[in-house]
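Morning!

This is the sequence you dropped in the shared folder:
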Amino acid sequence: MPHTVAHLTMFQLMITLGILLAYMSNLGFLHHNLLGIRDWRWMLGSALIPAAILFIGSLILPESPRFLVEKGRIDEAKSVLHGLRENTTEDPDKELAEIQSVANQPKGGLKELFTFARPAVVVAIGLMFLQQLVGINSVIYFLPQVFIKGFGFAESNAIWISVGIGVVNFVCTILAYKIMDKFNRRTILLFGSIVMAVSIGILSVLNFTLSVQAAAVPTMILIAIYIFGFAVSWGPICWLMIGEIFPLNVRGVGNSIGSAANWIGNFIVSQFFLVLLSAFHNNVGGPFAVFTFFAIVSIFFVIYFVPETRGKSLEEIEMEMRKQSADKAAAK
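The structure's back. Tokens below.
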């Protein structure tokens, strides 16, 4: 379990690092029309560099040991595992035996997913939708526009604010990496939901009651608090939990459904954020009021639907979710 926690939190940490580097890249190219090409084109084109690195990395990346075992290529899987665990205290032979025992189990499909694993599907979709509907990627994508359109900031100042928020996001994800296994999953999620709801709820009220000039600095502070609440909780925990709540034989397809829900939610909030901002006459209180509603919904979702998974085996989690589902059905 800790091995999975570390790797999934590292995944979120690298995402936040990428976001921070993107903000810094934008700042570096701002007002520099190199070779007669506009700065925004350089900002966009700089994404080719990590894309090229990713392509090269994919060519030299070893094949997944689990895939190799499933294809019967045991010796190759053993060789890859020994290479990956060379400088660790983990036993690659023991890990290979565990992979073989899991790989030999029958795989479940959609029928199994929507029968005995249905409670896990509900939790996964709810978590991943709400992770986006609280507005995080709208803030990440459009933060400069918020301060340019909403508060009349110059482009350079708006991007500097974005860099600062990116730093907060990255540092708080490191904090999440350190505390992840010291607190219950539900406790961390509830803490994050409450911090987000309170911070952006206050932000919304201030932007409807104060002048634009008076609301600017409090908005920056409250967005930083909101980012803190998300980065230590819903950012890494949701990805971790969808890997813990599904039974092994349907984990692959279950994770896929959770990921799809996440990207659908991302599409919705990213498409409608600027529309909402325009509808409220560039008052950022409007979109953030909507995000506050979903942050409040996330509190009740965690309380009534999300199981505790910390320190439990996959079998224990599955049995608890089945019992919870049966109790709700009996109550109806």
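Headline: The mean pLDDT is 83.

More detail when I'm at my desk.
O.
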